Amino acid sequence: MCQGMKRRASGAKRRMDANERGAALVEFVLVLPLVLLLLFGMVDFGKAFNYWNDETHLANEAVRYAVVNKNPLGGPDLETAVKQDADSGELKNGCSGCSIDTPGITVSFCFVNKDPSTGAPITSVGAPLRATVSADYHWLAFLVGQGLRAQSGLTGSATMRIEQPYNDDPAHWADNVYLKSGPVAC
Fold it and tell me: Is residue 11, in this structure, part of any structural domain at all?
């Protein structure tokens, strides 16, 4: 009797094994897209974090050169020179279908404090100056072409006090290495 029960149990087990033969493959196929999306999402977040870090570094470099009113990088103006100093071609110029659109990053400067009576920016030595480097980031663009419709602004900024005077005479704005079209308040 024990022998017969073993045979029936082993026969039932074989039938169950035959019914579950492709279950692991089906489960793998169902889970794989989610795992890949999670993996690519982590890679894309790392890329965005690196770009944000690069923008912050570029903003710090830009404001440092601006407060001493020198442009050791060369180029027509400090904004363009800092943009060309970016680490990657995507940050410098952007591209169609990339994480960063054309024209890449933008570099801007502004004087933080305003004169309370006139509202004009305070440009004297010791006044704070802010540099901002920004770009729009398209999430998972490398995976789906134009990316998901999700995008966010990546912005790095730095503020320092002016060490060399900004020439705020309209006839001499072009003599400055930044804000050649005149002072701008934040």
Answer: no
Q: Is residue 22 part of a domain?
A: no
**Pairing between β-strand 128-138 and β-strand 151-161 as defined by DSSP bridges:** antiparallel
Q: Is 185 exposed, middle or buried (0-12, 13-18, 19+ CB in 10 A)?
A: middle
Asked whether residue 69 is assigned to any structural domain, the reply reads yes
> What's the whole-model pTM score?
0.80
Domains of the chain: total: 1
Q: Give the torsion sign (CA, 28, 32, 38, 42).
A: positive
| pLDDT tens, residue by residue, 85-116 | 998 999 999 887 788 888 899 999 999 999 99
Q: For residue 62, what is the DSSP state?
A: H
- Whether 184 is in a domain gets the answer no
pLDDT tens digits, one per residue of 138-173 = 888 877 655 566 788 999 999 999 999 888 888 888
Which neighbouring-strand residues pair with 100? 137
Kindly list the distances between the CA atom of residue 184 and the CA atoms of 17, 60, 62, 105, 110, in Å, as whole numbers in the listed order. 75, 18, 16, 19, 5
CB 114 within 8 A of CB 124: no
Contact predicate 76/84, CB 8 Å: no
Q: Cα-Cα-Cα-Cα dihedral of 65, 67, 69, 74, to 10°?
A: 10
- For residue 88, give its domain range: 29-175
